[in-house]
Design brief:
Layout: E1 5-8, E2 14-17, E3 22-23, E4 29-30, E5 36-38, H1 53-57
Antiparallel strand pairs: 1-2, 2-5, 3-4
Length: 61
């Protein structure tokens, strides 16, 4: 079992790799793949996942 790693990408999303469980505000498990990217700019239409909106709005981390 590999430890979860969260990498902050410059001016972009959080990349999560390793073993993790993602849950919603009610504790329900959100099915994911092995690696995910999570929105950091707040503009994604697919929250909590990144949809690359940060590029369109010129997000700066």
């Amino acid at each position: 079992m590999s430890q979860a790693t969260i990498k902050v990408r410059a001016d972009g999303p959080y990349k999560v790799t390793g073993d993790f469980v993602l849950t919603d505000h009610e504790g329900n498990i959100i099915e994911t793949g092995d690696d995910i990217v999570l929105c950091r700019c707040g503009h994604s239409d697919t929250k909590p996942f990144c949809d690359r909106s940060h590029k369109e709005i010129g997000f700066r981390g």
